[in-house]
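Q: Hi! First time doing this. I have a protein sequence and I read that you can turn it into a structure. Is that right? Here it is:
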Amino acid sequence: MARREEDKLGVPAASWVGTEQQFRLLWWILTVIIILNLLDAIFTINWIERGEANEANPLMNLIISQPVLFVCVKTSLVGLGCYLLWGRHRRPMAVVSIILAFIVYYAILLHHLRAVKLEPIIAMLANMN
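A: Yes, that's right. Below is the predicted 3D structure, encoded as structure tokens:
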């Protein structure tokens, strides 16, 4: 009798998704999520210090007055989430969750960039010639 192939959590191989190449892409997407999260933390601290925004997450709002702690906690929590998702990256729901997390953090970055006044920066770069 042939032994069924399973992952560490007992999920049958038949329910696995993806190829090694796709898993490498998922790994890079998780890396980008952590970078986007770090950028979100930096932008958030900047907007709050300038009085232009408030932290939307009530739990993170408790520590926003300590920027280093805020960044450490925020990146640690998202990093832990990415680690847990990577541990289950062969499962369809984990793949969907990774893609959704990327979309959410990308949208957050676009929201931050929309608020940045780029005209002075573009004018400065244009005058460098």
